[in-house]
Automatic annotation (TrEMBL):
The active site is at E196 (proton donor). GO terms for biological process: adenine catabolic process; hypoxanthine salvage; nucleotide metabolic process. GO terms for molecular function: adenine deaminase activity; zinc ion binding. This is Adenine deaminase.
């Protein structure tokens, strides 16, 4: 049981496809008559030895082949929601990669509707709120992203916003400026991955060219003091994923993770799991791992949880309720 299970948590950096555990991957492979390039769950798990972001993405996109139907997408996200509810999850803004599925002939609406089914069920059965964030794959053509956004117009009521993910190095945010401007016109919120593998300049570019309200990862901002000052001044939320940074070898050891330096600088940092099935931990596990490697006092744990609430796209009322729950947790720990 996580030490932080009772701390109310908001997950802002979570890829639906990154919650696909080997057991479910094989269940869906059998159900859909799809073959995986691994003989067993153990063999698949043994392949989770990544050297960088691309080595992870290659496996991540390969296993998505088992996801074919609306029911599959429901089952995928529901398994994540049930498991995370036990770790204190209260609100989640879920990334998904439609191009990884439509390029295989899966209907856009089956992806969105299946994920939305799971979130709706989580609202009634688990008391978890949230929404969906459609991510564009930055290593695929801009016009494909533009077409994906046009397809999304039939589902604007269930989409919170758009994001940008996949390979960072060599794929800067700038070319997606027009697509993000169109998303804003459609009333969608904007976030982007930047500064995990790519340099600090990618963070500034995401802010300036895409108008993002939140930066996913952003750890490399520390290389640029002027950028840090700007992120502090503008209170830009940074969704940090220490277990991702460890498994993708952005840091060699969690003890050396720059989280303390980011907090000391006054950055609005929160803790998230990214791709929990692949990186070895869900959101509560992430708090535990940081506590074990670096020490984590209760005030700091509450600050991280509060930063996630503040950085979320939840309603003002929901934010106020979650902040109250965090203060109650802190009071009970004293
Ligand atoms: O950690 C990630 N980084 C970039 N793209 C991704 N797509 C899924 N997970 C990731
Ligand atoms: Zn991510």
């Amino acid at each position: 049981m996580s030490t932080y299970a009772a701390l109310p948590k908001v997950e802002l950096h979570l890829h639906a496809e990154g919650t696909l555990e080997p057991e479910l991957a094989f269940t869906l492979a059998r159900r859909n008559g799809v073959s995986l390039p691994f003989a067993s769950e153990e063999e698949l798990r043994a392949a989770y030895d990544f050297t960088d972001l691309q080595s992870f993405l290659d496996l991540y996109y390969a296993t998505t082949a088992v996801l074919r139907t609306r029911r599959d997408f429901h089952d995928l996200l529901w398994a994540y929601l049930e498991r995370s509810a036990a770790q204190g999850l209260r609100h989640v803004e879920v990334f998904f990669d439609p191009q990884a599925h439509t390029s295989r002939g899966v209907a856009f609406t089956d992806v969105v509707d299946g994920l939305h089914d799971a979130l709706t069920r989580a609202g009634t059965e688990l008391g978890i709120t949230g929404g969906l964030i459609l991510c564009f794959l930055r290593d695929r053509p801009v016009d494909e992203a533009a077409r994906t956004l046009e397809e999304a117009r039939t589902r604007l009521d269930v989409l919170l916003g758009v994001g940008l993910d996949s390979a960072e190095v060599g794929f800067p945010p700038g070319p997606f400026a027009g697509v993000f401007a169109r998303a804003a016109e459609l009333g969608l919120r904007r976030v982007a991955h930047a500064g995990e593998e790519a340099p600090a300049s990618s963070v500034a570019e995401a802010l300036d060219a895409l108008g993002v309200e939140r930066v996913d990862h952003g750890v490399r901002c520390l290389d640029d003091p002027d950028l840090v000052a700007r992120l502090v001044r503008e209170e830009v939320p940074l969704t940090v994923c220490p277990l991702s940074n460890l498994r993708l070898r952005v840091v060699q050891d969690l003890a050396e993770h720059p989280l303390p330096a980011m907090l000391a600088a006054g950055l609005k940092v929160s803790l998230h799991s990214d791709d929990p099935a692949y990186f070895g931990g869900y959101v509560g596990d992430t708090f535990d791992a940081v506590a074990a490697a670096q020490g984590l006092d209760d005030a700091t744990a509450a600050l991280l949880a509060r930063n996630a609430v503040d950085g979320s796209f939840a309603s003002p009322q929901r934010k106020a309720d979650l902040r109250g729950e965090i203060e109650d947790w802190l009071a009970a720990r004293r």
